[in-house]
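Changelog excerpt

This revision adds worked examples to the README so contributors can see how folded entries look when concatenated. The first example is reproduced verbatim below.
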Amino acid sequence: MTAQYPTTWRRPHQIVPDRRLRIALQIGVLVYLVLAFSTVEVNWQRVTEGMERGQRFIMGFLQPDFTSRWRDISQGLIESLTMTLTSTVVGVLISVPIGIGAARNLVPRPVYLVCRAIVAVSRSLQEVIVAIFLVAMFGFGPFAGFLTLTFATIGFIAKLLADDIEEIDETQAEAIRATGGTWFQLLDYAIKPQIMPRLIGLSLYRLDINFRESAVIGIVGAGGIGATLNTSIDRYEYDSAGAILLIIIAIVMVAEYSSSYLRKFLQ
């Protein structure tokens, strides 16, 4: 028996079936956008001056200077790479038990609620805010940056790991339970084979994110290449700032291609 396919196209159902109500909503959205844009106060003189500074920055980006501040650039780069690697490793190691505890189908409800609360707190605070707080606590330097990136990694990895565990193929888990396997055997034989490729991919992706974030949190004093970039911009050394940005772009591109190849190899 051959499958029957529709021969005519049917228009999908409208979310708002009433045509007059749809038009009213569209007009309302348009009016809101016009009113929202009208509240934006634009200082055109400041915009003109900013365009001139932007032009100087672009010229420095096109003519980067890698030599004048190479010592500071190399030191900041080493700090960023060190923060990135250590925070990713430590963050993933902490995220795994929290992610398992945040999976509804594996743990009792009290454990689930506590781990989900940890994930929610970690994801609710942006890295720059955490970096400002930790810099105030521990002072300027890469240690505050390491703690910031570790904190952010925990929320990122644990959240996605818990969601993946909740979406596993339950037939494998039921098979382990039917044989009388322990909870740890359930993790080892039913959960780990299904989530390990995903965990490796997420870890590599977070490594990429942490390096880019290290350039951002360095602006508020958390060490790394961002501090060097901020100093160059404050001194109007746009050629050195352009060199730093080119280095960041190059490292991110290398990490992107390397992680894509590694994920393909592991799969």
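The second example, added in the same revision:
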Amino acid sequence: MDLVEVLPQLDMFRFRIGQGYLWRDGADLTLIDAGDVTSAAAVEDGVRALGHDPARIRRIVITHGHRDHYGSAQELADRYGAETLAHALDAPVIRGERPVPEPDLLDWERPLYAHGLTCPEAPPTRVDRELAGGEVLPFGGGARVVHAPGHTPGSIALHLPRHGVLFTGDAVASAERVMLGVFNVDRAEAAATFRRLAALAPRTVCFGHGDPLTEDAAAVMEAAANGG
């Protein structure tokens, strides 16, 4: 796993597939996505390498119900007493009560999707708090939950207006360029979500896959969302 500083309060964990983020409010920590089922030890090591105690992880926000984003959430939450949060529409998938919805794949996405399935399956994982969108979570000066459907029905983004930071989950990706995320269950809905996220005019954008966007973020997001 690579550990990448994005901002003084924000670091990225780059896993074999996908990535998660650690936001720091003093000693209190928030984890946005937790990597796959093999990632708990790497997250703990990364937190300690930053000079922090994993026992200060207060919450784990799961952006959506795909195995590479919540596989280690249960282990970390159990170990440190963290609250797990996810959207109500994806919570049954995360808990193992419903199957993962099948994406509407384009031909060029099929080999990428097959590679993604090499990620180990996630165990059934509890969701302590189900979200609907519009909630303001107590970190980052007030983190607003944005329902971001299309990739999955219950995908969410997190917007920290005070810091100009946007976590997109897999609604948007960065693969040589900023683009609509792949493997969407509803491509038209996903494109509409992309436009809504771009309209937030963030200064820093953190994706579920790909390098964070830290320069001209608002302009780049707007152009990409509108086909530029």
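Reviewer comment on example two: The chain has a mean pLDDT of 96. The chain is about 25% helix and 30% strand.
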